[in-house]
Amino acid sequence: MPSPFPDHNKRKPSFMKIAISISGNRLEAPFDPRFGRAAAFCIVDSETNLWTCHENPALSASGGAGVQASQFIGKLGAQVVISGAYGPNAFDTLSPAGIEMYLAPSGETLTAAEVLALFKAGKLSKADTATHAGHHGAAH
Amino acid sequence: MRIVVASGKGGTGKTTVATSLALSAQEASSVRFMDCDVEAPNAALFLIPALDIRKEVGIQLPVVDEALCTHCGKCAEVCEFHAIAVIAKKTLIFPELCHGCGSCTLICPEKAISERLDVMGVLEGGKTATGINFTQGVMNVGEPMAVPIIRELKKWDPDPVFDIEIRDAPPGASCPVVETMRGADFILLVTEPTPFGLHDLKQVVGITRELGIPAGVVVNRDGIGDNSVETYCDEADLPILLRIPMERHFAEAIASGKTLVDAAPEYLQIFRALLESITARVAK
After folding, report:
1. pTM value?
2. SS3 of B19-34
3. Which CATH number covers residue B79?
4. Does A100 fall in a domain?
5. What domain range is B113 assigned to?
């Protein structure tokens, strides 16, 4: 069977941990298109589909949510993250850490499981730059 | 005595009141004037100081020596503002999020963090023709944070001898306003009798109460709008110390760069009485 991850197999172990931003506490929970302010992250093992859910500590941060959320999923061991948008600080934290950022459609109501299926089918595109300007400064 | 002139809503007449209060106070006392609206200082347009001293200010940004850093992550944990990230054996700094508190430098067990000044703006100072000690902060365009500049401005002491300090606050009710008010003896709240004026007045009154600083109100453009400001001040036990009527010739004078006391010299006496009333309230 051809691998769904042609880009990754050369330099990554055959399984990987994927972080999906969600609002809920299980794989069937709705996908949350926000990254830094996502309610939670679902970490899925691509091989076994075993998952764990973790509340996002950056949800209530007064600033720097993207940086904090990035470190959080880094600590959880994610090598890939799927969300709806990445701000400049999130991008600049995830990028040097080698965590690959994928974009899932934010307009539709998808579950994390459906987003995972799209990813495995190679239907999600990679974010090569920040997808929007930062929020910082707006409240000061 | 330190008096802050604040408003919440912009354009209610903070600078009009602050500059005329300074000019009226100056006949009997030595006055220092501080324009804390560092994003758009404009009191100098009215008081016309000779700004002959300058100082660059900003915050101390961390610099990580990668040779010493063990990526233990303590700096990222201690940072209240998530301005440092330690991820995948890299320590990343986000200058725009940093507030320059220095916690990371202090906590680093390897002494791998040093600091450099990140210039965010300048302080300027000088005397006006009538002898007011004038200082202002000017934030560089594009900087996200005004508080560090206001903090440095308050500490800056080109001429430390004064009887009365008048701080012209920025508009709004966020951190720069809080920083301007901190350490003051009295807050003069300039408002206008409109729903918007009232809405923002309530917010700044909340700050003065949180800080425990006595406050009083100046109603500018009195006669327009409605009487909801008056009703609120009654209920909130907030004294209305002065009313400045809506007068076209005041507006014209101010638009041409004159102060209120220039345009209407009878206000010299009125502002002196206001100052006496403030002095009495502070002494209580």
Report:
1. 0.76
2. HHHHHHHCCCCCEEEE
3. 3.30.70.20
4. yes
5. 60-118
